[in-house]
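Sharing a chain and its predicted structure for anyone who wants a worked example. Both blocks are below, sequence first, tokens second.
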Amino acid sequence: PIDYSIFTVAALSQMQTMSVFPSNLEYLDAPKSQCEHSGSCIPRRRRRQLVFGASVRCNSYRDCFPSNGFSLSSSFGNPRVYQCMQCHSRGGFLLHFYDKVDFGFNVEFENHHHLRVPSALAWLEQEPSVCEQIDDEKDDVCSKAVDWKLDSVVGTESEDGYEGKSENNVSSNTEGGNRGFVNRRSSRIDVRALAQRLKFSEGVEDVEKVLKGMELPPPVYCSMIRGFGIDRRLSPAFALVEWLKKKKEAGRADVLNIYIYNSLLGAVKASEQFGETRRVLNDMEEQGILPNIVAYNTLMAIYLEQGMIREALNIFEEIPSKGLSPSSVSYSTVLLAYRKMEDASGAVRFFGGIQEMYRDGEFGRDSTEDWEREFHKIKNFTIKICYQVMRTLLVSGENVTLDILKLFNDMDKTGLQFSRAEYERLVWACTSEDHFSVAKEVYTRIRESGPEISLSVCNHVIWLMGKAKKWWAALEIYEELLDKGPKPNNLSYELIVSHFNVLLTAAKKRGIWKWAVRLIEKMQDKGLKPSSREWNSVLIACARASEASVAVQIFMRMVEQGEKPTIHSYGALLSALEKAKMYDKAITVWQHMYKVNVQPNLYAYTTMALIYIGNGNYKNVDALVQEMVSRGIEPSVVTFNAIISGCARNGLGSVAFEWFHHMEVRGVAPNEITYEMLIEALAKDGKPRLAYDVYLRARNEGKILSSKAYDAILMSSQTYNASIDASLLGPRPPGRRVDGKTSSELFGVEDAARRG
């Protein structure tokens, strides 16, 4: 029979070192091309797709193997055919590689006998690309109709002097049990049917029943073994290997080689029955077959699938000691191990070592791979690992800012940079206030990488800075939008205005009027038009600080800017004027408010009552309360407290007591502040006995008054020689604590009962 293993061994001898099949395949065992064109009939092409197709016509199958590699196809289902036109006229045979859809190669001899050998071994023996890492393609080889003519398999007489059996003998040998997968009309074998017959095999006897009398090329066995693994059926795969061992014992040593065991390891990995790995390795050792780099890579992948990352890294460290050079997939597997450990810094350090070897020319020196291309693949894979780990850290909910910034620093040292799209996706992953440093760093890197940046990303960073209370940092980003682009939209405007509102609210609550004025000026400088809400915040800050003149200026600027004052604007201005005791101007503002049809609210009425009391217009206070009631605004305890407080400041104890009576008539319950203000007013007005009675009433109602009211009664009774029973007042209430001390401790005031 013709020894067809010549070209199969030649074609597959270096496939073990390929990471992308077969971008730069050369043949070791095959004779060099004897055609006069030295194998130039197959032009070299490189494609990223793992599909291929090429044809060549030469005088004999021994002369057809070029040394410059195969051509890769970029389309599925349509193999590209390259022919040497000079050799075409002499006949010869056609070596045709098909793509994934029709996976095999044709050998056409002068006498038109065909050999259609499944080249799935080429697909199965190849190592996966770096981008896909160690995950093999799940093409079910057993489901593909890969067939060949029996006369070529068994052999015929050829011009090279090979003797073989006749077609009639082949037919007779294939009748009987094999009739299910033999087409008698075309003498073709359906490998799918053949694999279906074998997939329930449990031992050598079952395989012998199906394959008895068949002489198949080794790639067929590899294809079926790998297909059984994909179908998660290891029993027929091991049975087929045991049958091949019997054939080896019978003198067919070529059928059991490293490619068979690589396929078996791949089947173990695909079936996820990892416990059979040791069985395969022991069998290889018994047969005297040394693992090649493909076997080591598959073993590393098996360990990774089991989560045994340390063991996988140990296998990689053993590869040089076995006299082998790591392939691109070996390096990719190590990087994948770091990814599974989520150790992006370790992956970056490992890539740094690869980069040093690449610069020194030591990277892939003993391999036929296109290492320049593979190096860039490994680089991109490392970047992808860093990106995935960063996103994992950001969504973990923990404070990982320092870890991410350190990883950015490590990447900069090795020259690894994300693309703009990856940077922007990292920004979107920043959602916690702890991520503001990461978001700002990524935003800065996007700005430095080029002028283009998504406006939505900028808005997200502005929002995150506000969430983290980094309002000035958000304002800086907004300023860059104005200076460098892209042009801010309505969302940008609303976000930055909301940040100003937060700052203005803080200034309003604390009465920091200078800060509030600065913020409103900053808004106008950046082209932001303050609304009445922002103006009112500034007015309230001025009112709390008793800055009446500044409040008047802000009010005038508000009107000049075309913003209509609201009742809150007038209320804040009235409060500022009242605190500054500018009663006449306050009354003018009140009258102007009526002219522009701005209806007062409870706060404005309360403030105006204080103004009338301060101005001595007590009758107007009563009229003001009547007006409130007529407008449906019921005076609250706050209103009466303000009136009584105004009377207390002006020493009008009798007037304060009258308003206390009005309060009771209207059914408004007094609170602690009411009693304290009333007691203070009566004590100042020389009515300590009345103040004493009010204090006892408050105690009977369960009110807890401050020490200020207690002291006011005692001091007033001593001043005006009023006789009171201090023991009925009870113990002196503790004062407000300042630095851990009460007011009595600070000022040396003893307890009233002890002093009495």
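Comments welcome. The first strand starts at residue 54 and ends at 58.
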